[in-house]
Design a protein that fits this description.
This protein is α/β, with parallel strands linked by helices and 471 residues long. The protein has 11 helices and 18 strands. Helix 6 runs parallel beside helix 9.
Length: 471
């Protein structure tokens, strides 16, 4: 009997509206924080229409996740089904985001993460001096730790590709993990053989080994989220990241750390160009900005392309209002691999740098090792932010971001080559700087003002609220 090969591709379906009346998709914590920082609930906070999503399921589509911010759904279906959906009156567009590959197709292009020592385990002897002392001292975090601030009261989300053994290692305070979410359609168990990268990133924040290792924010609570898929490189992964950002927002996350980035895909027609790095051309970058405007501090790895032909950022490091993080060594020298800006629309990128060269990490065996990459600088910076925010709990995300940038070593004279951006932050100086931040521009692209507890943005002579409403 002849068998027909049916290819199932992945699509993002955009809907016209949200016709149903429903409650906002926000937890009690998220709503309380919106009220605390005077951030209004708007249409983007309401879920996608159940009627529309059920219509996709009824024709045989598999719905992976929805996006309330972009009012759409990511689903798997045949091209014939996709053509039918495109004709529905409540559908704006149907966009393919991942192609199915017949058996025997070549493996996908995987991003190269510099890791001169991360591939091999290097267990250190337990000296009195902690192996993390130098990387925390570079941005002067020890004084805040000495004052008793370690991220307590701050909720973080770490989004990555794999968290092998993160749920069993004694070096993490397991009660501080509040849950995990997998936005991929890979079959691997979340804590199984999904990769070590996320576990190592988590270690820089939450890891503790007696007489040896101490993370940047060991008392912060956290969620773990997986958005990176192992076998393909496709725009669907960016939509997975959108789903992670939206979920983190709904949970009331304060700080979101993501050490992933996108520029090229298995299908070259989807690959990005430098002009796409404007913070607006991809849903992932727009979502990172939306998350920031809804009260979250988003920390993003710049990328590891600085010594390669691309050289530039990877999405969503181009997003506005986030903290994009470059990599330096323990002496403050920029890593040759650290991607640099500016963004395509001229904004300083990265904003700040942290140790991403020879970073002390914890591997899935619970042992200390080393690795290179802006991937590791980013959670270190996120941990700094969590500890600083725990010391200043009444400030909002933009105020914490502003303090970090203003404390940085190049703030008065940002690096014209956009390798360092504003430089290496000083956590204690950021804490001690009690000057009210009013009427001072963050960048020429968007002047941000804080008056009381309210943030305003000015672009091209027009003043806006933080959510983009004209004043």
């Amino acid at each position: 009997m002849l068998q027909l090969l049916i290819l199932l591709n992945v699509f993002f379906v955009s809907f016209t509206d949200k016709p149903e009346k429903s409650a906002p998709a926000l937890s009690e914590r998220a709503i309380e924080q919106r009220q605390k920082w005077d951030i209004p609930i708007d249409g983007a906070d309401y879920p996608v229409s159940k009627l529309y999503v059920d219509s996709l399921r009824k024709i045989g589509a598999t719905v992976h996740h929805t996006s309330r911010w972009f009012n759409g759904a990511t689903c798997t279906m045949t091209d014939m089904q996709a053509a039918k959906v495109a004709d529905w009156t409540f559908v704006i567009s149907v966009e393919m985001t991942r192609m199915d590959k017949p058996s025997g197709a070549p493996v996908s292009k995987q991003r190269d993460v510099p890791s001169s020592q991360a591939e091999g385990v290097r267990t250190l002897r337990k000296d009195v001096e902690l192996v993390t002392d130098k990387q925390l001292a570079l941005y002067n975090l020890h004084p805040l730790h000495d004052l008793g601030y370690h991220g307590q009261g701050i909720l973080m989300t770490i989004c990555d590709g794999g968290f092998t053994n993160a749920n069993t290692l004694s070096c993490f305070r397991q009660q501080q993990e509040l849950g995990h979410f997998d936005f991929t359609d890979d079959a691997d168990d979340f804590y199984g053989n999904t990769g070590t990268h996320g576990t190592q990133c988590l270690g820089t924040i939450s890891g503790m080994l007696e007489y040896e290792y101490y993370g940047a924010a060991t008392m912060a609570d956290y969620y773990l989220m997986r958005s990176e898929e192992a076998e393909t490189e496709s725009p669907k992964e960016m939509d997975n990241l959108v789903a992670a950002l939206e979920t983190a927002d709904s949970l009331g996350t304060n700080i979101f750390s993501v050490s992933l980035g996108y520029a090229w895909f298995d299908n070259d027609e989807w690959s990005l160009t430098y002009s796409d790095l404007d913070g607006r051309s991809t849903r992932a970058s727009r979502a990172a900005t939306i998350a920031a405007r809804k009260g979250m501090l988003v920390c993003v790895a710049a990328g590891n392309e600085g010594n390669k032909p691309w050289k530039r950022l990877c999405v969503p490091a181009d997003a506005d209002s986030v903290l994009t993080v470059g990599a330096v060594n323990g002496s403050g020298v920029i890593g040759s691999f650290s991607s640099y800006g500016p963004s395509a629309d001229g904004r300083v990128k990265p904003e700040v740098c942290a140790v991403g060269v020879n970073t002390a990490l914890i591997n899935p065996l619970g042992e200390t090792t080393f690795g290179n990459g802006t991937s590791y600088a980013t959670p270190l910076l996120a941990g700094l932010a969590a500890t600083l925010w725990s010391a200043l709990p009444d400030e909002n995300a933009m105020q914490i971001r502003e303090r970090i940038i203003r404390s940085a070593s190049h703030y008065g004279n940002p690096d014209p080559a956009n390798h360092f951006g504003y430089g290496i932050p000083d956590a204690y100086a950021a804490y001690m700087n009690t000057t009210t931040i009013i009427n001072t521009p963050v960048s020429s692209a968007a002047r941000k003002y804080i008056q009381g507890n309210t943030m305003y943005i000015q672009r091209n002579g027009q003043r806006y609220t933080i959510l983009g409403a004209g004043i």
